[in-house]
Specification:
Elements lengths: L3 E6 L8 H14 L3 E7 L20 H12 L2 E5 H6 L5 H6 L11 E4 L1 H8 L4 E4 L1
Parallel strand pairs: 1-2, 1-5, 2-3, 3-4
């Protein structure tokens, strides 16, 4: 039986194992034939969606890995808009709305509210938080 998963990532790209563990879990779930419809980045997890993250050459680029996984498996990558704005991760729409000249939301990520997550939770067989 194939299950539909949703993931919630609360840890930043670096300085915590949460994002890396979530990514490894996602790969394992997909390899077993299940699907993941959404990865929601919340609290410090929104930092995974910054296009300004530049890891050293010998480090894993977790943001790029999330982007590639999402493309390969049609997974939505969403950040909590309030948490993201609070931490300086700004999408193009929010930059325009707040009259900012720059935005730094990485390609493939979208910003959404917690209401969107709550609605999506009803569609998943399993939700795993990291």
């Amino acid at each position: 039986m194939s299950l539909v998963y949703g993931l919630v990532v609360n840890g930043p790209a670096y300085g915590s194992q949460a994002s890396r563990k979530a990514f490894q879990f996602a790969e394992a779930v997909l390899a077993q034939g299940h699907s993941i419809k959404k990865v929601f980045f919340y609290q410090e997890g929104v930092l995974n969606a910054s296009s300004l993250i530049l890891p050293a050459n010998d480090e894993v680029d977790i943001t790029k890995q999330w982007q590639e996984l999402a493309l390969r498996h049609d997974i939505e990558l969403e950040t909590c808009v309030a948490a993201a704005l609070r931490r300086g991760v700004i999408g193009e729409e929010e930059a325009s709305q707040h009259q900012l000249k720059q935005h730094n939301l990485a390609v493939g990520f979208q910003q959404a509210g917690l209401g969107g997550l709550a609605t999506a939770l009803l569609k998943f067989d399993r939700v795993v938080q990291f």
